[in-house]
Structures are given as C-alpha cells and as structure tokens.
Write a structure and sequence with these properties.
225 residues, mainly beta, six-stranded mixed β-sheet, four-stranded mixed β-sheet
C-alpha cells in the first residue's frame, strides 16, 4: 500500500501514530537539491535508472496536470498517468486549480524507488501523486510544500482499502525531516516539491528548469462509461 507524508507547516498527526524522533535521513538533508539523493551508490543500487515506474497524478475538483514535451508542456489531463524513470527528476504543470483562475504551479517529482506489482499489472498499481486543496493553496501563497511518498511496512500498515486517488497524509512540523519520518514508517519511493517557481524566460535556462528533460512514457487509460 502506498501512502503519503506532507511536510509543509505544523499540523495534526494521524491519531494513534506518534511521530518518531529522528535527526535526519542517512542519504538526504534539506540543503540537497532535487536529484542529488540519487547520486548516492546506496540509493542507485536499489533500482536501475532505466526502470520506468507508472505514476498517477490527481487533485481536487477541476485540477489538471501536464508533462513536458520538447521543452513545453503538453495536453492537460485531470487524471494523468505516465511512466517516469527511477532516479530522475521531472517538472510538471498543474492548472485549472479550483478557486485560483489562471494560476499555474510547476512542481517536481523525484523518484527514489519503485513498486513491484505482479507482471502485467504495473498500471494498476502506480505511485499516486495526490494533491489536496491545502497543498495547492500553500504553494500559491509562496510556500514550499514537500511530500514524501512511501510504501507502508506490511507489518504495521493500516488495514484499510485505498483507491489510487486516495491518501492518508500526516502533517509534520516544517523543521522535521520528512524523509527520515517516512523512512521510519516504510520505504520512501518519491519526493514531491510544490513551490511557486515559474518557467524561465530565457531558453538557455530551460534544460536546468526541466532537469535535463528526462525521458518519460505516456500511459493511455481507457475511458470509463
């Protein structure tokens, strides 16, 4: 089961699950830029960087998502699914945000692990990137919101059914290490950073903004009647 953790501002903790007290993650600290964690040999040994992992994006109401194509963002979709490379950092676009007409956000998702579903069922078990209205509002206010998505430990996982668009977030104080906290609950597999950065005006800065334009694979989902 995949769940998420939010590190944005002080907030409530999931009832009955006290936050572990840890100073930091052995492979990561806040000053590292997106993508730096994969430079560790311990992290890169977990999965080949050529591995494509299905990821599903969802958000509140009319929110839509788009992946970059040749330096620009493609068609927006409300339930976007794509195959992303483990070890890469992707910039994507969030539009049609409820209550924020015309506003756009450009978060990043960094895959530091993968799931292992039965062969042929990979798209049924994507990593869910679910945004809440409060996540988007915080970012639009100029704050950085960090989500760490992790696979729950099967010995301690909450025995509740969960859809791909569901999440059970845990809010932690902004000064607490989100990755270390997620690591204590299970196996971290993705880091999502939602801020207020916008695309650069200069074309020369585009490769840096898009983290080198890593390859991704579209996943077409059948329409439901």
């Amino acid at each position: 089961m995949v769940t998420v953790m939010i590190a944005s501002q002080a907030g409530a903790v999931e009832p009955g699950r006290p936050l572990p007290q840890r100073s930091g993650h052995p492979l990561y600290h806040r000053s590292l830029p997106p993508g730096a964690i994969w430079q560790s040999p311990h992290a890169s040994a977990a999965a080949p960087q050529s591995t494509f992992q299905p990821v599903a994006f969802s958000g509140p109401g009319s929110t839509t998502f788009a992946m970059p194509e040749f330096g620009v963002f493609g068609q927006s979709e409300p339930r976007l699914m794509a195959g992303l490379m483990v070890g890469a950092v992707y910039r994507f676009q969030v539009t049609n945000i409820p209550g924020a007409a015309g506003a756009e956000l450009f978060p990043t998702v960094e895959l530091i692990g993968r799931t292992y579903p039965p062969p042929g069922l990979e798209t049924l078990y994507p990593i869910p990137i679910n945004f809440s209205a409060s996540d988007l509002a915080e970012a639009l206010d100029g704050n950085l919101v960090t989500r760490v998505i992790y696979l729950e430990d099967p010995q301690t996982a909450t025995p509740l059914a969960q859809e791909v668009t569901d999440s059970r977030p845990i809010d932690i104080p902004a000064d607490q290490d989100a990755l270390a906290t997620a690591d204590s609950y299970g196996r971290p597999i993705a880091i999502v950073r939602i801020g207020s950065v916008s695309p650069p005006r200069s074309p020369e800065l585009a490769p840096q903004f898009f983290f080198g334009h890593p390859t991704w694979a579209p996943i077409f989902q059948p329409e439901t009647p």
